[in-house]
Design goal:
The chain is built from one helix and 13 strands, in the order βββββββββββββα. By secondary structure, the protein is mainly β. The chain has a single domain (6-146, 156-180), classed as Immunoglobulin-like (Sandwich), CATH 2.60.40.
Length: 181
């Protein structure tokens, strides 16, 4: 278990997240175009069932590219046949792509713990809310990799057809409702 992360928890499971090893939510981060940052999410299930997880940024303009990790933004990662106590750490290296600068862009996570298809509880929150500078990063830029270097030899899961789109729309609606309050 990685210490010092901020957790979101419910009766079905827990998610803890970090950005550059700082506990979520990281608000004082300023980054340049192409400057890599590392996002980690530790997921623990309290139930027998399955987990769906997504890293996402709200808004129309997609400001980050995934350099390495188990998924791209707005793509679901699913784990099946889980037992209570199952834990896994997911790690992404991401970088701003220059499509949005001079403002903050939240990096969010949603984790859905499922006992069955229609019996689930979710946690979601902002991992980091970095300010993207209108400057280019001059340090070494990691090259994009097709797979997460820390992954196992298991094939990637494909998720349920149609479930990703419906969940993404639900997630966006929840963010909009939360911002109105």
């Amino acid at each position: 278990m990685i210490p010092n992360g901020n957790a979101a928890e419910n009766d079905y499971g827990k998610a803890i997240a970090w950005c550059n090893d700082e506990p979520a939510t990281v608000n004082d981060l300023e980054i340049k175009i192409d400057e890599p940052i590392v996002v980690k999410v530790e997921v623990t299930s309290k139930i027998a069932g399955f987990v769906d997880m997504q890293l996402y940024e709200p808004g129309v303009t997609k400001s980050f590219d995934v350099i390495s990790g188990p998924s791209n933004f707005d793509e679901w990662v699913s784990e099946y046949d889980l037992e209570p106590g199952w834990t896994k750490v997911y790690t992404w290296t991401i970088a701003p792509n220059g499509k949005w600068t001079g403002g903050r862009v939240p990096i969010n996570v949603i984790v859905i713990f499922n006992k069955e298809i229609n019996n689930n509880l979710r946690v979601q929150y902002t991992i980091a809310n970095p300010y993207i500078l209108d400057e280019h990063y001059s340090g070494p830029v990691p090259t994009r990799t097709a797979t997460d270097p820390s992954s196992t030899n298991q094939p990637p899961s494909q998720g349920s057809p149609g479930f990703g789109a419906a969940s993404a729309l639900l997630g966006i609606a929840l963010v909009v409702m939360a911002r109105r309050n």
